[in-house]
Amino acid sequence: MPGDVIPLREATRAWFQISLQTFGGPAGQIAVMQHKLVDERRWIGQRRFLHALNYCMLLPGPEAQQLAIYTGWLLNGIRGGLIAGGLFVLPGMLALLALSGIYVGYGETDFVTALFAGVAPAVIAIVVQAVQRVGKRALHHPALVGLAVASFAALTFFAVPFPAVVFGAGLLGWLLSLRIPALRESRAHDTADGTEPLISDEALHHELPTVRRSGTVLLIGLVTWFTPVVAFAALAGSTGTPVFVDQGLFFSGAAVVTFGGAYAVLSYVAQQAVGVYHWLAPGEMIRGLALAETTPGPLIMVVQFVAFVGAYRNPGSLDPWLAAVLASLLVTWVTFVPCFLFVLLGAPYVERLRSNRGLTAALTGITAAVVGVIANLAVFFALHNLFDRTRTADAGPVHLDVPVLASWDPVAFAITAVALGVMFGRGWSPLRTLGLCAAIGVGLFVIGAL
Hints:
Blueprint: H1 8-19, H2 25-40, H3 46-57, H4 63-106, H5 110-138, H6 142-156, H7 162-177, H8 211-239, H9 243-255, H10 262-276, H11 284-293, H12 302-313, H13 320-346, H14 350-354, H15 357-386, E1 390-395, E2 398-403, H16 410-425, H17 430-446
Antiparallel strand pairs: 1-2
Helix pairs in contact: 1-4, 2-4, 3-4, 4-12, 4-13, 5-11, 5-15, 5-16, 5-17, 6-7, 6-15, 7-15, 8-9, 8-13, 9-12, 9-13, 10-15, 11-12, 12-13, 16-17
């Protein structure tokens, strides 16, 4: 088993540089790593890079961060994986912690309200674009289109729990593949060779998938994952702050069902955080997503905002600011530690997993369902930001939130139309679109139109 194939200090410097450029969601983050590691430094070949990415696509959680962990492991072993994955998250975590504090402290001021009046409609357009992009890649067969529509209907009309939709889609994907062999073939990524690497595949770090190694990694990973949850449970008992336990357990569970990227799981998080735990008001989820879009790192970092605001409003006997910071750190921990566990545990088995066509078929089904899940998120955001009031319509098994049409917000509709126009008509990036819409919101406030 080789040691460091790149000096650890040099690799750490490279990962720090990458961590400051990881804007634009997973596609942009993966593109940054591709440019730095494959094209510029030539530490890893194109095929090996895509092979690692294909494995990370099988896992719950943010695939870009998991790709950083996996690639760090290839270059410098477990130390490299820990450094790469940790640095990938750190800048965004610090930035969003500061932005969450600003939101809680100044979110009710007229200026900040105007700012969010601009960015919230932009997020609707960003999620709609995500539906289009994921759908274009994932729905390459009529059966998969049907699965996406069924997933959307299950969430939107019948309030089926998100985990049930994910696992049901995986099972249906596998069953459909028995009759449709095309569903057992991975179509996720291009297979171009790219630039010849300076380091051969044989020189990269590798380990044999032994039972002893797997057991050790699993034990350490589970203890590392849940020890803070237990510690916070004890703190909650002494301070009367049950939000720590609720958030620790909820987001630990969410970490293992986040197939399909951040937009998919945000539908589940929004449903629970707003409708069940009441940590946020309906419109606040989209504000948190807007903040997360402006920071580097995985978009799923928005859960930190949810935890911060929820704990600030339910601090028990603790100071609200202390409770908010502690909760945001806890939720960040339980969201991202599993990524290290999944990658470091499964990396030695990657070749075996990638040759498993049944697993590929299940992933194909889940990816198709993700299109419906993201569409459900777009509907949720539109309902609660384009209209001031909604109502619930129940008819037997159907439970549907519908808008009160008289409460429509013409400014929100207009800004959403602008955001859709620049993203789909002119190809603008999400970050640039957010900037434009924020400026529109502030401009309307200055002229007295808000």
